[in-house]
Specification:
The chain is an alpha/beta fold. It has two domains: 2-37 and 95-139 and 374-526, FAD/NAD(P)-binding domain; 148-215 and 234-369, FAD/NAD(P)-binding domain. It contains 15 helices and 20 strands. The strands form five sheets. Strands 1, 2, 3, 4, 5, 6, 17 and 18 form an eight-stranded mixed β-sheet that branches. A five-stranded parallel β-sheet has the order 7-16-8-9-12, covered by helices on one side. The longest helix has 22 residues, at 430-451. The radius of gyration is 23 Å and the shape is globular. The mean pLDDT is 96. Bound molecules: 3-acetylpyridine adenine dinucleotide.
């Protein structure tokens, strides 16, 4: 089937692209690998899954009617509530008819004018534009331990959770991984399971979510000032509306600093990192925050040995994506919960009845992998994408993602990546970053139509300049100090480069605006009439 715009992925990014491109009068088809709409929110159905960005901000801002009519029930929405919201959006804007489920793109090739796409089920599609809306955390990572196939219980991955749910009542459950997914799941599963064993490799920093139901007065207040809230988010570094402090953590008294941290701990979630402007820039400044959080984590755990295992050390707070938790640490005070530190007590093998670590055997009925994703590039490099001159994206990105503005790749005309590597993406409220990209692309395509251009491609110079800028900005921060998925550390052999853009949502928007003001600087347009 031939359309103007082929979109890969029916999560928030794909749906927003569909809606906006349709409004431009373009024909659009969205190909989705899964059997449902919703992207990560369709896949990640593990118990306790919820968003750690506030509901009012983690929602579409393009329609005032939509944001006025939708009623969020909690400060941080659960996965089922977000999926209901997505469903509402799909119905309200009549999106379903252009979404094609169970169509995993396996190959895309540029033929000089259009993108020719093949799906796993053998279908052929073509589009003048190819929009990759595949998400940054969508290709799951599932390590294989020796003996794993002999396990007689059930093996699950948080990001491929069965739609019908899993009854964990009275089961002996093991969870490998203590990132956001593992941390969210732990307190919920501990209440259901007969016994829960957590296999932890790297203890991470976590701030309390301070989740709460939203009452009518709060809802009315937010909705009365929604436009200002969105504007504040757009003008903040992370798209969460938090303004960074103008002060250094090192220029205030210890008493002042403590009061600031106490307030941030109670309310700010991710915003904690902005309590002082230099927390992510200066190690001594960061140490003050890291130490405060370590103390707070320790205070929640009774047993000194377990406490010691849970306290993060060896990397600055915020450099490895922190979590926002609800009762994670007190869960380790329960009698039915065991913590295994696999750095000192490594997993040796999976047996038919559980896991053998160096110190002994752990009986399990269910083994959950909360081991995360091949982040940022996983879903872009899994399919074969062949650009101009027969060069593949895998070849072009062999040393790490090469993009201009995180949107374009030289040699791949009319291919756009939404909220991908080289853009604020995972360092931002990704929903806001998605909308920023889609709106900017809509402007670009309108410009192309007005100019009679069919193709747009980043120049090699613009791409090289942007990659250098992304790295320079990252190197001026503490981010590269941690082993993290921002740096590609989660997958062995992945190039070690910093992938998101640290310049912030507001700074990035200014760059996008300047590119337009400078006549789409860094982009080449050509008028080869598309062959359909
Ligand atoms: O994945 P992760 P996640 N042996 O990569 C461990 C978003 N998210 O699914 O740190 C033992 O963070 C690994 O250990 P280590 C959010 O952006 C959002 O939890 O590599 N352990 C780590 O502990 C988040 O950051 C929400 O040493 C192994 C864990 O598995 C992102 O998704 C909710 C291992 C993986 O943590 C990913 O979170 C949930 C091995 N071989 C997720 N391999 C929201 O609320 C890996 N690990 C929006």
């Amino acid at each position: 089937m031939n359309v103007d715009v082929l979109v890969i992925g029916a999560g928030f990014a794909g749906l927003r692209t569909l809606h906006t491109m349709r409004e431009l009068g373009l024909s659009v088809a969205v190909l989705e690998a899964g059997d449902g709409i919703g992207g990560v929110w369709n896949w990640n159905r593990y118990p306790g899954a919820r968003c750690d960005v506030e509901s009012y901000d983690y929602s579409f801002g393009f329609s005032d009617e939509l944001q006025q009519e939708w009623r969020w029930s909690e400060r941080y929405a659960t996965q089922p509530e977000i999926l209901r919201y997505i469903d509402h959006v799909v119905e309200r804007f009549d999106l379903r008819r252009d979404v094609h489920l169970n169509r995993r793109m396996t190959r895309a090739e540029f033929d000089g004018a259009r993108w020719r796409v093949t799906t796993e089920n053998g279908e052929h599609w073509s589009g003048q534009y190819l929009v990759m809306a595949v998400g940054n955390l969508s290709t799951t990572k599932a390590p294989e331990f020796p003996g794993q196939s002999s396990f007689t219980g059930r093996i699950l991955h948080t990001a491929q959770w069965p739609h019908e749910g899993v009854d964990l009542d009275g089961q002996r459950v093991g969870i490998i991984g203590t990132g956001s997914s593992g941390m969210q799941m732990t307190p919920v599963v501990a209440k259901q399971a007969a016994h829960l064993t957590i296999f932890q490799r790297t203890p991470n920093f976590s701030i309390p979510a301070s989740n709460a139901p939203i009452d009518d007065a709060t809802d009315a207040e937010v909705k009365a000032h929604y436009a200002e809230r969105r504007e504040a988010a757009r003008n903040s570094p992370s798209g969460l509306g938090f303004k960074p402090s103008r002060f250094s953590a090192l220029e205030v008294t210890p008493e002042e600093r403590r009061a600031t941290y106490e307030a941030a701990w109670e309310r700010m979630g991710f915003g904690f990192i902005l309590a002082y402007y230099d927390l992510i820039l200066d190690e001594a400044a960061n140490d003050t925050a890291s130490e405060f959080i370590r103390e707070k984590i320790g205070a929640q755990v009774d047993d000194p040995e377990i406490r010691e295992k849970l306290i993060p050390r060896g990397f600055p707070f915020g450099t490895k994506r922190p979590s926002v938790d609800s009762d994670y640490y007190p869960t380790f005070n329960r009698d039915n919960v065991t913590l295994v530190d696999v750095r000192t007590d490594p997993i040796e093998r999976v047996t038919p009845t559980g896991i053998d670590t160096a110190s002994g055997h752990h009986d399990l009925d269910v083994l959950v992998f909360a081991t995360g994703f091949d982040a940022m590039t996983g879903s872009l490099l899994r399919p074969e994408i062949i650009g101009r001159d027969g060069r593949s994206l895998r070849e072009h990105w062999v040393a790490g993602p090469q993009t201009y503005l995180g949107l374009f790749t030289h040699g791949f005309p009319n291919l756009f990546v939404i909220a991908g590597p080289g853009s604020p993406s995972l360092l931002s409220n990704v929903l806001l970053s998605i909308e920023q990209h889609v709106d900017w692309l809509a402007e670009l395509l309108t410009h192309m139509r007005e100019q009679g251009a069919d193709l747009v491609e980043a120049t090699a110079e613009a791409e090289a300049g942007w990659v250098a800028h992304v790295n320079e900005r990252a190197d001026a921060t503490l981010y590269p100090r941690a082993k993290s998925y921002y740096m590609g550390d989660e997958i062995e052999g992945k190039p070690r480069v910093f992938m998101p853009y640290v310049g912030g949502v507001r700074g990035y928007r200014r760059i996008l605006e300047k590119v337009v003001a400078d006549g789409y600087d860094g982009l080449d347009f050509s008028a080869v009439r598309a062959r359909v």
